[in-house]
Amino acid sequence: MDKYIGAIVAEIKEMEAIKDIMINIKETEIYDLKIFKGEINSKKYVVVRSGVGKVNAARTTQILTDRFNLNYIINVGSAGALNDDLNIGDIVVGKELIQHDFDVTAFGREKGYIPETGKIFKSDKNLIKKCENIKIKNIKITTGVIASGDIFCTDINIKEKIRKKFNADCCEMEGAAIAQVCYLNKIPFIVIRSISDIPNGKNEMDFDKYLDIAAKNCAEFIRQI
Length: 225
Fold this sequence. Notes:
Rossmann fold; 5-stranded mixed barrel; 6 helices
């Protein structure tokens, strides 16, 4: 049976950017997910768009895990910067993933702690090491913490709370859910995010403007990895 690298994105533009660097593309459909099999630098990939949010991301990850023989899963996409040193287009390699909106503090647990699995999901060490030599012109690449939650963060106060509570570098809506499913299925994974916006009260406009840049940077990252 062929082994694949699984790539999961949330947005159409992120999917198209990856397809632009693929060859020998074949499309299939499982449940209502359009899945594209192909090659990038002679490696077999299976690429799928999950849609936005943690439930969509988790569902898609499980379907890929059930239906394909995977070496590992890469989740790429856009994110909002929490770290003030990051600019539009810069990339965060998610060494650690947390769900900033998971809250069972009523039972004496820390914010973000998930019963049975814990608070932090760690990307595969070997995949992080592969990322160390990747370079993209005029783009800062850093390794750090990615915070996921079912909210598109525009509020500066929420930004500061997430940054302070979890020491997170960026926030988005899928990565830690994908990480949790990979952890439960014992599939190596890594989450990569390119900055498309900075929570400032109007970053929904920045997101629309800069999503193309983030998508292309993520595709280039996959090409090099």
